[in-house]
Amino acid sequence: MTAGSVQGDIGADSPLVGRDAVFGELLDILRAVRKGKVATVVLTGAAGSGKTAVLESFLEHCRTGARGVRLLSAMGDEWEAQFALAGYSQLMLTSPLRSAKAYDGGPQLPATPVAALSADQVVNYASTLSTHLEGLQSHGTVVVAVDDVHKLDVESLRILTFVMRRLHGKRILFLLTLNPADAPRIPAGVLDFLTGHQVARIPMEPLTAQQVQEVARRLHGIDLSVTAAHGLVRHTGGLPQPVVELLRELPPETWLAWFPSLPPTSRLRARVHSVLDAASPGLVAVAEAASVLGRSAGLPEVAAVSGVESVLEALDEGHRAGLLRLSVDQARSAVVFVEPGTAEAIYEQIVPSRRIALHRLAAEAVEPEGEKLGHRVSATPAADQALAEELEDFAGRQAAVGAWQDVATALFSASRLSLDLRGRNDRLLRAVDALVGAGNVAEAQTWSAAVDALPPSPLRSSVLGYLSTVSGQNDSAQSQLEMAWRTSNPERDPKAAAQVAQRFVLHGVASWDGPMITRWAERAMSLTEPGTPAHVESEAIYGLGLYARGRLGEAEASYQRAFGHAAENAQKQRVQMGAGWLALRMDNVESALVNFESAAPTEYRGGSLRISLWAEAWLARTHLVLGNWDAAAATIARSSVRLETSRMPLIRPLLYWTAAELWSMRGDWDRARYYVSQAAVQPGTYRAMQVPASLARARFHEARADYESALAVLQPLTELDPWTEDRASFWPWQDTYVNALVMTDQLDTADAFLTSFEGLRREREIPSDMARMAWARGRLLAAQGDPDTAREYFEAALGHLRGLNRPYLRARISFAFGQSMRRAGKRRLASSVLRAARDLYDSLGAATYVERCDRELKATGLDVGNLPDPADAVLTAARDHHIQLTAQEQAVAELVAGGATNKEAARALFLAEKTVQYHLTRLYRKMGIRSRSELAAAFQVKD
């Protein structure tokens, strides 16, 4: 069942946003049960994951939208669980018979609650329930629903399990909900059954950011930004209950801007208050200490801050209350709260004086210097110049190793604690600058108005220019950085001037302007010492500027020097990322993979999220080139979350270009369209954004054999991203452009462009570039009627890739080679090459081109072995008409019967449009039909 049809069942205003698939799966199971099959289904998920909402909606559907369904239901309860048969009695009392008849022939319920039952009594009650269910299902389907089965009394659990194990061939659905965290409460035998192969388990996965956006829009009329949606998912763990509660409780303006944290929900506040009211003083102290310590809440730290001697006893109490638990793994042990938002709920109820005292204790207990300072800041509500200077010193040391988020945090605190206005403003500016350096653009943008309101200065202009650059605002960045440089004084303050120069380096990379990159990088490095931030960051990009100017050898040498200067800290991340860019372009793809994988993580050595995201975007591209497409998809999924949270449009087209191409090749057109739209940019943005955005659209159109649209997208790149004697392009689009020209019969234009491109002077031959030029020339020669020379170029193209692991490019070349030879009548050669292309595409999961290879192989008319036969209907219809079709006629018939126009069929088969019309005319005459609709009808009958 599709999500759309499910939505029709659950209603547009249903709270089950993000649970449509689960609801649909339950409906499918119910249909199977109604045909005479017993099924047991367990919905699993944490508290607040929506299990009960799905169950209640499903039962409501059974009551109102499904005929002949009889319901028995029960709900687990911790208090009732101490009494035998509490759950059993709920089931029997909700039976459609609802009277003493429900118990006829079996044991009666005890007049008063009992503590336990004997084994014989359990069997007797189970037999009664089984007989009762069999009787009910003889009149219709029965649904037995138990919410929170882990809270059911033990006897009822055993009775229910006894029945579920023994009923077969009946129209009965057992539907249970279970919180895995509470599974240990269930007896071992029962749990073995519920987790065994006889039971279908449907996990309630956390909501995605897109689903949270849908929840906000449909239930509350709020249009959440992607950043806000990701923040909400992070705060709630993606659990629907707190998501809905926060959307309902907080004012709509909360979601319009970046927010550092969200408050707990009213429900969670009330629950925490209730638990703490009933808790021992030791548990209260431990919970407060853990809320203050945050991620550093290890056992020693909690003991030191709480002052509790027996922390484990308090943890046991907290564990039983469902408040907190001890998490232990190989790296560390920590006190963690069970439900997201609990720490905030506890922290906000601590009175100010105690909160300050706890932070002072925490400052003594934790080891990392940044955390010590953070607790001291939290314990200092007024200005403190000495502490501000300590924070300034710490920020300087963290900047030297590239830990920019630590720098930003320290400088914001120092700004608040500063006594003089000038020092406060200076630290605020540098804090925002550090936020951009860390890649936390979403937060930095919230400070842009405050920065803009400060008095003009080189630093202010530099910060605004830096923020404009990472936000993709080309013109604004240029004007702000020019102002910053004009008002700076390199002789009096070389460090500040070097920082402005380094911002120009980034601006140059985004513009892919080699002279700008190298000129400003040299200027920044001349003003600073090796190892300082501006020097390292400029040196990390300098090699790309040299490559952009065609100076390949110098570019490689520059990265050898840069690695020698970079220490083993976060600054090395930048050198690795730049070196990876160059290695990828120079066909050292395996080396690029190592560098990008090393540059991407920031968890252990700090570093910049911006650099990490650049590295992950190029890592996904590298995986695509190497044929690791599942790894590429995983990288895209992982980094897209961080990218959207950070609000960094500069990098979006690069990541989504790869995503759009991958899913186009795999035939997932909805996902491909989504990523094409995500990659789109406005005119006037940076070249590093416009080119990959255009390539995303071009690859999408090419995969659909829509070469006119692909050409329209690629044509502007001849001016936007030219390859000249003094400028080397980074993005490989030229062969795709030539192919689009050839496939749209613009052979003279293709020849002129390719001849010019081939004639460019290059310092060194890069194998993949040579392969692309050769296959483009082969494609053109074949279209010009010279298949023999074309073959030489195609074979040369494949030869350039010999020894390189480039399955994707090899597949592209082989497909064009085979298609061209098939059109030239060289059927055996075409068949051999197309088989190789098909195998490569199949190994990549490129379903779009596997299908096209199959079509081309059929068009050769040779034995196609075990290939799937999408033209079975064509062949059957032809036999019914007692005619013989040629391979070309079969291929044309398949496409036209499927709705393709003559032009689309010609593009797909690499034929002239007149040739398609010729085959179609012959086909009509052979079959005695006169129109495309009659052709489609003849084949559809046999589908």
TrEMBL record:
It comes from Pseudarthrobacter quantipunctorum. Pfam families: AAA_16, GerE. The keyword ATP-binding applies. Signal peptide: none annotated. Residues 878-943 form the HTH luxR-type domain. PROSITE patterns: HTH_LUXR_2. PANTHER family: TESTICULAR SOLUBLE ADENYLYL CYCLASE, TRANSCRIPTIONAL ACTIVATOR DOMAIN. SUPFAM superfamilies: C-terminal effector domain of the bipartite response regulators, P-loop containing nucleoside triphosphate hydrolases, TPR-like. Keywords: ATP-binding, Nucleotide-binding. This is AAA family ATPase. InterPro entries: AAA_16, P-loop_NTPase, Sig_transdc_resp-reg_C-effctor, TPR-like_helical_dom_sf, Tscrpt_reg_LuxR_C, WH-like_DNA-bd_sf.
